[in-house]
Amino acid sequence: MTADEVKILDSLAEGFADQLTTLTRGVLGEDTPRFHALNMGSRIRVSPIAENEVVQRIPIRIDGQERLSLSVRYFCCWDGSSTFMATDQADVHLFYQGVPDPLLRYEYVRNSKEPPGAHLQVHAHRDEMAYLLRLADRGRPTQGLRRDKLPRLAEMHLPVGGHRMRPALEDVLLLLQREFAIDTIPGWRAVLDEHLRNWRLMQLKTAVRDAPDAAAQVLRSLGYSVVEPTVPAARQAPEDVKLFWP
User: In Å, what is the CA distance from 133 to each residue of 31, 122, 182?
Assistant: First the structure.
């Protein structure tokens, strides 16, 4: 990256950190740790970071007691055209207070097809699932068994919408409020809905750039006039279009 590209990316990442702070404080309260952007060379880490650069978890309370916490971190970079900031990696892990292993792991890896780039891992145990994994005669489970390692449900990568339609931090916060009735502050839903709408629209625009012909077809069906460009923009190779990646 050039010096100017580094400066612009730093600014975009700082803006993203501010958005995440506004979201989490608008849902959970003003004592929620602030997100910061930390340049790490080729990528910028965005997460709740203390002054000593130690990553903090976000405390989640139920009836006033801290019961859960979220470990949240994003690694940001330029997209392939160096035009838009992209998420290179994202981790949102849910922990029960005092237990080292997470309950849920929402993760995203930008260049991954196998396992799916956007996936959920559940840290739990079901005898039936472990048995099914042992029955597999090829693939990841058998590779683990060859190393005398019993399969675990947490090792399964459950797909969650692909690279473009993946869940966001807003979805996780909504899950926690809906299922566990976590403590929130007045007006939290309006804050969350606004951020979720912005996220979905941003991802929709990204998907349109992946499949502009399909977008034009839909717009024409709605009565819009869509004119093809005289000089079409450069297109990615079909195998590189992330909209169609698992």
Answer: 43, 15, 34
The vertex-31 CA angle with 199 and 168, nearest 5°, equals 20
Cα distances (angstroms) measured from residue 205 to each of 9, 14, 123, 201: 20, 22, 34, 6
pLDDT on residue 149: 66
Tokens for 109, please give them: 């890896």
Global pTM reads: 0.91
Which residues, other chains included, contact 24 with Cβ-Cβ below 8 Å and sequence gap of 6+?
32, 35, 58, 169, 173
Cα 196 → chain centroid: 12
Q: Which amino acid is at 121?
A: Q
**DSSP 8-class letter at 239:** G
User: How far apart are alpha carbons 14 and 218 in whole angstroms?
Assistant: 35
Q: How far apart are the first and last CA of the chain?
A: 29
pLDDT per position as a tens digit, 109-154 = 999 999 999 999 999 887 777 777 777 655 554 554 445 566 788 8
Determine how β-strand 44-48 pairs with β-strand 65-78: antiparallel
Cβ atoms within 10 Å of 103's Cβ, excluding its own: 14
What contacts 240, CB < 8 A, 6 or more positions away?
80
Return the ∠ at Cα 91 (arms to 56 and 58), rounded to 5°: 30
What's the pLDDT at 145? 46
The encoded tokens of residue 77 equal: 């970079």
